[in-house]
Amino acid sequence: MKWLLAILTILLLATQYRLWVGPGSLAEITRLKRQLAVQREKNAALEQENRQLFREVRSLKVGTDGIEARARYDLGLIKEGETLFIFLDTQETGQ
């Protein structure tokens, strides 16, 4: 009878070990849930960035307005007949 009780106790402890410490344990599941939440946040941010880039690409493909705006902003281009004015802040230049 003592041997049966000892064997059952060992089996109970062995099954509890996997529940609390081993692979698939509650601690591991909690850690994986946290990782999943972080990854979902990253994915949401990347999806937003992809949507913005898609809108920009579509704008550049459809008409010249997007290309013109991009050239003006990135390259500082002006149209023929326009006059470019550059205003310098004297506090920033140190004068």
From TrEMBL:
Periplasmic compartment segments: 22-95
Compartments, as annotated in UniProt: Cell inner membrane
Keyword Transcription regulation listed: no
Residues on Cytoplasmic side: 1-3
UniProt cross-references to InterPro entries, sorted A to Z: Cell_div_FtsB, FtsL/DivIC
Pfam families, alphabetized: DivIC
Coiled coil: 29-63
Cell cycle listed as a keyword: yes
Keywords: Cell cycle, Cell division, Cell inner membrane, Cell membrane, Coiled coil, Membrane, Transmembrane, Transmembrane helix
Stretch forming the signal peptide: none
Protein topology in the membrane: Single-pass type II membrane protein
Protein family: Belongs to the FtsB family.
Job of this protein: Essential cell division protein. May link together the upstream cell division proteins, which are predominantly cytoplasmic, with the downstream cell division proteins, which are predominantly periplasmic.
Subunit organization: Part of a complex composed of FtsB, FtsL and FtsQ.
Name of the molecule in the record: Cell division protein FtsB
Gene (UniProt): ftsB
